[in-house]
Design goal:
elongated, about 15% strand, 2 domains, TIM Barrel, 8-stranded parallel β-barrel, alpha/beta, about 375 residues, two-stranded parallel sheet, 14 helices
Amino acid sequence: MVNNDIVYEDTTLRDGEQSPGVAFGRDTKIAIFTALRALGVRWMEVGIPAMGGSELAVIRELLERGSDLMLIGWNRGKLDDVVQSLDLGFRAIHIGLPASDMHLKHSVGRDRGWLVEQARTLIGVAKDRGAFVSISAEDVGRADPSFLIDYAGAVKEAGADRLRLSDTIGILSPSRYAAVVASIAKAVPIDLQCHAHNDYGLATANTLAGLEAGARYFHATVNAIGERAGMADIAQVALCLRDFHGVDLGLDLTQLKALSDLLAQATGHAPPPWHPVVGDNVFAHESGIHVKGVVRNANTFEPFDPAEVGGTRKIIIGKHSGTEAIRYVLGEQGIEADAGELRQCLGAVREFAMEKERALSAGELVAIHRRIASEAAVA
């Protein structure tokens, strides 16, 4: 059962920018922020103040531009970081701390006792300043389940508003991630947030599983960008919540394709054509029986209307096309071909596609038809 008051917190400007090789300058960061706002995002994790320099200047500007939004500053589990974010004017902060023994030992050189005391101290400082406090249980996939419950109880008692359950290296299956969420939700009355990475391709599935198990908040990014293999994709999560659970996140879904294109330009990496929801091939049809069905009734081979996400339906002419696709594309060019011309065009199209190892443009199809019609006239 999914909560009806789910909160989406976008982290494109924080975890997304941590994609290897990606760096957003001031203008790009402002453009992404503005586009996310237009989408309807009200919660955003906008950066890491401790980076200082130009990043800090952009964060200050975002805080001014987004005074009506809930903007979150990400912090290491250090007092100086937390104080810096509070001094900047963040009304909400996140404190990143590891929960697994492996991360405690190798990332920060500490133990569980230190973790609990440090969490209590930092939460207390932030709550004394009136901030909304989110805190991590990082690497939940390798954390002791009983300790996770104890830790959740400790941060709740200290005053934390939310516990982020981070599958930091994406090693949990949906059922295992749901079990982590459910066990904590049952034991401790604290809001939980899903933060799932995509190392096994399960970030979106794990996010949905976590929400179904009782989490209220979730993280996602545009185009699933993020550390290593990325994380949950907001386009996918939003459509799944709408169509599978009847949950409206309050987003203008018609902006999704344009937002995806903006991130592709900003990162220099377009999602693959088969990327769900926003990929260029999602509403592209080539094979004969598919085109025939879509032309007659789009629902035959499309789960939702492309216009709902700002996409466009495309009929592709290529090796697997049938005469219906050729008729359709020629018709779009104002050409009415008879059955004989369509059959000849089909043969020529397949030979062209095999030789060139690609699909044909509408202009190339028109040229083939023109040649065939000309030869028929001479004969």
